[in-house]
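Hello Y.,

Per our agreement to keep a running log of every chain we model this quarter, I'm adding this entry. I've kept the format consistent with earlier entries: sequence first, then predicted structure.
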Amino acid sequence: MAQTAVPRRSPWRIDPKGVIAIIVAGALVIAAGGSYLWNTVLSDLPLSSGTSNPLGSGQFYVNPDSAAVRAAADPTLSAADAADILALSTTPQAIWLVPEAHPTASIGSYVSEIVAAETASDTIATFVVYGIPERDCGNFSAGGLTAAEYPLWLDAVAAGIGDTTTAVVLEPDSLSLAEECGNTDSRVATTHDAITRFEATAAVIYLDGGHSNWHPVEQTAALLARAGVDRVRGFATNVSNYNTTDDEVAYAERLSALTGDAHYVVDTGRNGNGSNGEWCNPAGSALGSPPAAFAEGHLDAELWIKTPGESDGECNGGPGAGEWWNAGALALVRN
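Predicted structure for the entry above:
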């Protein structure tokens, strides 16, 4: 079915001081020859006061220990390659919480350290919670926790967040893959329980909303309704995918209308050149628009949810899913 394009909204209102700041910052960036850095400067501009968006000003947390920072420190890289990879680290990106890296015993302290850092920097961190049982149906991102351990792990994540406002993308692909996995009922029940475990926190939760080239919007809306989208802020689209933002917003607006005007976020980290139909390390991909929050409408924010530079899986020359890939990172920056 053809989709009606939804106009993009401006994520800020500029006052005269802001105009001067943009001109000065733009001159510095142009002089440095780093056109992709310009976007990060713009993403730091605040929204007008009084917005009802819980993501507030759109000033998102930048992880000082990101994969890009660590990769850029590799002494075997050329100076140019190291600089381009390091440039990725200046843009706020989601922090993925996976039990393989941070099990139940340590995940709470890890999250609380990041929350303390976001509070100190007056920013908002974005977490991706990615540990659901039978994760990815045994595909490239196979793993996750047992049904008995998963609630305990979630409780530890929730305790780490506490009363600090954070964005939480809850289990990407979990609902959209449920039919393929053959466990729709259990996925819905697991999502319901996960939502409950975050209810006492200040987490701003977005469920799995698939993307514009996947299931019919009515099918995804029905899944979201069953999973409890009315109990959270809304849903996330395009996570780890490459569809253009305009396509995603058009899709998400239709999905919002079918789910009681739920709000949503869009992953724009790697969609600068749109999709060629492949989902796994497609050639020609480019960085998309930088993270920004929006004062009005259903679109809360454009976020870099999937980490640019991390592989989708062992395809098109990439390493395992979630592993850092210098060649992929450099291609995104230079495209």
